[in-house]
Amino acid sequence: MTGNSAQPLAIALAITAAGTFAVANVVQQRVAARLRSDAAFDTAVLVHLIRRPMWLAGLALVIVSLSLQATALGLGRLVIIEPVLASSLLFALALAAWADHRRMRPMEWLAALATFAGLVVFLSVAQPSGGQSTAKPGQLGLAAIAAVVIAVGAAVLATRLSPLRRALTLGIGGGIAAGVTDALTKTVAALAGAHQLGIFADVRLYLLIVIGLLTYTMQQNGYRAAGLAAFLPVFSVLDPAVGSFLGLVLYHEHLGGGPVRIGIEATAVLAAIWGISRLARSTAEAEPIEPVLPPALGTVGATPIETTVMTPLASAPLASAQAAAAPVPGGGPLLPPTVPVPRPASPAEESSVPH
């Protein structure tokens, strides 16, 4: 099945891939957010997460999604499939809101749609042509080094920031690393098809492994820092943007069109930037929806208002009992003095008393 007849199937596969990837993002973010670690940035986060069955389930969904994406790209036109795949951002944000038992506000939907529309327009308009199938090891090595430096700088800076800004910073570092991963993947895929097992002797395969693990480490730490809306939009926009830039620089691809196309691309980028900033602000304003339970009577910090409401007449016995049980410096409870009350003597006691 090729040509136009394959387009509906390709679009259906792309929508399925986008939905699967969105579920994977939400699952992995929720598992990573519950990971207990004293470090703001955990370099061994993947080692900890790989022991969590739910996180592994999310990883399996990522693999399924990537397989569906590859099939969709093989059947359909890139200009159609790439924007459909970008819809995973909307799916993920809506699914995260549903999992948190809250509704996305109109401004959040507007920001999400602006980010999505900016990404779609950028991917649709910025269609490169020409170029070569592989890039030189030295060029890809420099790109990998730049990705590592930026990621390390973002990780160090993130440890000094609030959780929201930490997620945004890690999203920037992770998105750039993801774009470099895309550039490395293009070359490694071409080499694997041409040389098969000979790929294991090529340094570019190992650069891909290192940068891929770095990207995933940045992503999971971003998930730990704040909500999905704080990390995922900037990550989702920078990934294709950096990949496209490296396509122009390293693979010698070129863009057609003139000032009009450049203006459209600039507008799309600005729309995406506005959407990202607005979603981040919404994340900062959002409060976790958890049931507020009144503290139990007698717990530290409880006040009479937090426990129960009593009339003065009803609270007097309780106040007396609390005063009686209050500790004193000498040790032991403070008890009120007792006054012996005489009781009538029994007949046996009266008979034993001498008259």
Structural commentary:
The chain is globular and about 45 Å long. The protein is built from 14 helices and no strands. Helices cover 70% and strands 0% of the residues. It has one domain. It is mainly α and 355 residues long.
Please tell me the total number of domains: 1
Give the terminus-to-terminus CA distance.
125 Å
Estimated share of beta-strand residues:
under 5%
List segments where confidence is low: pLDDT < 50 over at least 5 consecutive residues.
287-335, 349-353
Q: What is the residue-mean pLDDT, rounded to a whole number?
A: 78
Structural class: mainly alpha
Short descriptors:
globular; 355 residues; mainly alpha
